[in-house]
Amino acid sequence: MNLICPARILLPLDLTVDDAERIAQVYAAPPAASVGERLAERLGVRLTVIPSADEAELQSIADLHRGETVVLLGVDLGLRLPAVVEHSGDGWSVVPNDNDLTLATYEQAAERFRESIPTEPNHLVIDLLAEAVAPGARVLELGSGTGRDAIELERRGFVVRRTDATRAFVEMMRADGYDAELLNAVTDDFGGPYDAIFADAVFLHLDRTQLAQVLRKAAQAAPVLAFATREGDGEEWSNRRLDLPRHFVHWQEEPLQDLLTTTGWTVQTFARSQSGDFTWFHVLATRS
After folding, report:
1. Same-domain check for residues 137 and 185
2. Which of 69, 95, 121 is the last residue of a domain?
3. What is the CATH number of the domain that holds 240?
4. Does residue 244 fall inside a structural domain?
5. Which of 41, 79, 103, 132 is 20 to 30 A from 155 in CA distance terms?
6. Residue 168, domain extent
């Protein structure tokens, strides 16, 4: 029998929870009990330590929390984290988040995206990077997309690892004759170390919790970060340019600077530019 209001289990990558008010309870396997206790106390909810995480236990949690979301810690379900798992009565499935849905749009419309954007690279962010690291520096590019910025970065003498979470963009760059790798900034390890990390118009698709996670990982992988994201209020879904939905997260200067500070970065340059209807932040930060 299908559940009208399915239960959701939040499997976090870390303990940053955006919408704490929606968490009904924390469950933890014994090895994660102390972490679960601290999280439950912070969220103001009950902690239950479960002896096992077999299907019967998970089914019991799902039955108890129909229409609610709970946190499950210390359990390996073989999923890439973070993830939300939903039980509809017929079994468990991973619920795609806003970034997953945006990536699905890029998978369908990669060529259309390339046709819709300027051919010129983002010299403003590349100039910032060039202020902080010398030619020959090893740069991890997150969200390489069509590869236009990587070409300019290499022209200036940097050694670029091209990556993208969209397979269509990875295949596009390979078809153009470049090495490129599939890497999801939220769920995958960055490897390294690198001399710098570069991300042009990538962070604007990440929710605030995801961006915090990515910034922390970046601080472990490289001492320099250069990126561009959009100024504004709140979040939005837009079909602009691609006629398919993409999710955008806007930032104000002070909250973004605060987030960088709390995730291990010191802001060196924080500049604005106007492009069409949008104002962009161009940021250079060094590891604190």
Report:
1. yes
2. 95
3. 3.40.50.150
4. yes
5. 103
6. 99-287
What is the token pair recorded at 214? Answer: 């990515």
∠35-39-43 over CA atoms, to 5°?
Answer: 170
Residues 277 and 137 in one domain: yes
Sign of CA dihedral 57, 62, 68, 73: positive
Per 3-state DSSP, what percentage of the chain is helix, strand, and coil (rounded to 5)? 35, 30, 35
pTM: 0.76
For residues 13-39, one letter each, b for 16 or more C-beta atoms within 10 angstroms of the residue's C-beta and e for the rest, the string is: beebbeeeeebbbbbbbeebeeebeeb
90 and 127 part of one domain? no
Name the residue among 26, 24, 22, 83 with its Cα closest to residue 49. Answer: 26
Q: How far is CA 177 from CA 101, 140, 162, 170, 209, in A?
A: 28, 18, 12, 11, 35
Can you give the pLDDT of all 288 residues of the chain as single tens digits?
233 455 666 665 444 444 555 778 888 888 888 888 888 888 888 999 988 767 777 778 877 887 777 888 877 666 555 556 665 556 556 667 788 889 999 999 999 999 999 899 999 999 999 999 999 999 999 999 999 999 999 999 999 999 999 999 999 999 999 999 999 999 899 999 999 999 999 999 999 988 999 999 999 999 999 999 999 999 999 988 888 999 999 999 999 999 999 999 999 999 999 987 899 999 999 999
Coil vs helix vs strand at 81: coil
Looking at the fold, whether 78 and 118 belong to one and the same domain comes out as no
* 8 Å CB contact between 11 and 97: no
Total domain count, the chain: 2
